[in-house]
Structures are given as C-alpha cells and as structure tokens.
DNA sequence: AACTTTGACTTTCTTTGACTATTATACACC
DNA sequence: GGTGTATAATAGTCAAAGAAAGTCAAAGTT
C-alpha cells in the first residue's frame, strides 16, 4: 500500500471517533518516515471539502493542522453539483441555484438567504470586478460543499 | 510550546468574572517561567481592541497592566458591534467573534459555522492576500447585519 | 499520463533578550 | 516641611532566533 494511503487511513481512524483531529505535521512525518510536505499532499488529495472535510492550521510554535469532518450524511452526489457549477458565478445564477436547492429541499430558505448575502456584490465590493465572479463561485462552492 | 495560549487562557479566566484584570507583568512572567515581554506579546496579539479589550498600564513601583473587557452584550445595537469590527479581519479574529456571538445567543452554531466557511481563506483563495482581510470584513459585516 | 515522493525555499507565529522609558520612593539639602 | 535628585521598580519596544506549517516544482513510480 502507498504511503499516502497509509497516512490517510491513520488520520481517518483518529477522526472516526470525534470527527476531528489535530495533527503536528512534523511529528506525523517522522512517524511515517517521510518529508513533512507529504502530509500536505495527503490532506490536499484526500481531505478535501468535496468529501466533507474542513481543514485549518496554524504555523509557528505550537502550530497544528486540524481536520474536521463535516457531516455528509445527506446527499451523495454533491461533487456532481459542484462540478456543474463551474468556476464563475454571477449573482443571478446564484439565485437560480439557490431556488433550485430550496425546491429540492437541499437547503432551507434561511440558509439560502445567508448564502445569497455572503456572495452578494455588496459583500464582495472590494474584490475587483474581473475577479468577482470566480471568487463568488469559490465561496458558493465552499459553502455548498460544507453545508449539504 | 503553546505558552502564549496558556497565558491567554489564564488571563481570560480571571477576566471572566469581573470583566477586568490587573496584572503584574514580572510576576506573571515568573509564574509562566518566561521573559516579561512575552506577556506583552500575548496582550498585543490576543487582547486587541477589535476583540473588545481595552488595555492600560503604568510603569514604576506598583506598576500594572490592566485589561478591561468591553462586553459585546453591552453594545446597544448591531451598529455598535459593526463599528467595533473595523474594516479588516483575520480568520482567527473571526473565530473569536463567532464564539462570542454564540455565547451571547446572537447566533446559533450552525449559522456561525456557515459564516466561518464563507469567510475562510479557502473561500477567498482567489482574493489576493493584501486584500483578503478587508474583503473578509465586508462579507462578515454584511452577513452579521443581515442576520441579527 | 497520472499519481506520489522529496526537498529547497517561503511565510507565519512564538520566544527570548538587550535596551529604553516611566513612575515611585528614599534621601539629602535648604 | 518642601524640593530636588538618585535609585529602584516597573513596564515598553524591537529585532533576532526558533518553531511550525505552506508552496511548488522536480524526480520517481505505476
């Protein structure tokens, strides 16, 4: 079995109980006798939001990598939805998606409204216009992936 | 290892009751077995005005460092809170706000989590770093205003 | 070709220590 | 007793060193 797979398994075993792990990158690297960046590789390829993982970290003394499992129990094909969304989104297309999600009971109205605000032009006023639709898509997808 | 976190926690424990602490820098440093300036570091990074702390001090004999917490729950209304937030926000400061909002029942956990994701570095990956904290602040404030 | 492993380089956060600034107190002098 | 001055007791500042984690591309595998 591949090293990355072993590391993945190791991490998932820990997460199983509490839906959360806090790793020390270099310790883990030492444990598996690999370079630290291998850990990043494993995380980047296996603990992605599409699979229901949320990752946060801190550098410096006492640093950590924290992986949180967000409950995916509902739909199985979020990644299909995400794929379809693409990497640019106008405000009006967001509305269409949200209405769709509501009608399929994927989201409730309150949540949908919150998302709408988060990705509105008002929220993104400081993002330059050329970039805005792709930032909007990022936030939108991040939210969808983590909410559904 | 995470000395600063310990010191932060220690101070916050004391503040909790009375919304105020008066510290003796060198005693505290001795207690935590560190150099006095570490205390300044902790204060400078964790007890900032954006988070509702006001710090005053005096040197010389009988000197002190006094940290006063200006309670969010005492804010008259949302606009006070928004004002306090300022126009730049790091991810970690967002976390602190969200925890605070939860503890004052201003937000429920689910909503807070959604906001956290909406303004995470992951969502904002395409916003260039110089701008990111101010975009984050915009989205955050927009959401707060519309949710509360 | 796609996936994995490795390593050099970067960025961020923390700890430490030398040096500086301010305030209180003790003591001398009138 | 008031005034000025030295000394001690604090706290502040800043930069260097240390401790993680992140990035990215080259090399290796399948």
Question: How is the topology of this model organized?
Answer:
The structure is a homodimer of 148-residue chains.
Chain A: H1 3-18, E1 20-23, H2 25-31, H3 36-46, E2 53-58, E3 64-69, H4 78-85, H5 91-103, H6 109-118, H7 129-147
Antiparallel strand pairs in A: 1-3, 2-3
Chain B binds a DNA duplex (30 and 30 nucleotides) through residues 1-4, 24-26, 34-41, 45, 57-65.
Describe this structure in words.
The structure is a homodimer of 148-residue chains. Chain A is elongated, with a radius of gyration of 18 Å. Helices cover 57% and strands 11% of the residues of chain A. A three-stranded antiparallel beta sheet of chain A has the order 1-3-2. Chain A is mostly helical and 148 residues long. In chain A, helix 2 crosses helix 3 and helix 4 runs antiparallel to helix 7 (129-147). Chain A contains seven helices and three strands; from the N terminus they run αβααββαααα. Chain A folds into two domains: 3-69, Transcriptional regulator CtsR, winged HTH domain (Phenylalanyl-tRNA Synthetase, Chain B, domain 1), CATH 3.30.56.130; 78-147. The model of chain A has no long low-confidence stretch (mean pLDDT 89). The first copy, chain A, has helices spanning 3-18, 25-31, 36-46, 78-85, 91-103, 109-118, 129-147, and strands spanning 20-23, 53-58, 64-69. Chain B binds a DNA duplex (30 and 30 nucleotides) through residues 1-4, 24-26, 34-41, 45, 57-65.
- Total number of strands of chain A: 3
Oligomer: homodimer
Class based on secondary structure composition and strand pairing of chain A: mainly alpha
Estimate the helix proportion of chain A, in percent: 55-70%
Number of helices of chain A: 7
Strand content of chain A: 5-15%
Q: Supply the number of structural domains of chain A.
A: 2
Uncertain residue ranges of chain A: none
H/E series of chain A, N to C? Answer: HEHHEEHHHH
The geometry of chain A reads as elongated
User: Largest beta sheet of chain A, briefly?
Assistant: 3 strands, antiparallel
CA radius of gyration of chain A is 18 Å
Largest interface, counted with CB-CB under 8 A? A-B, 28 and 29 residues
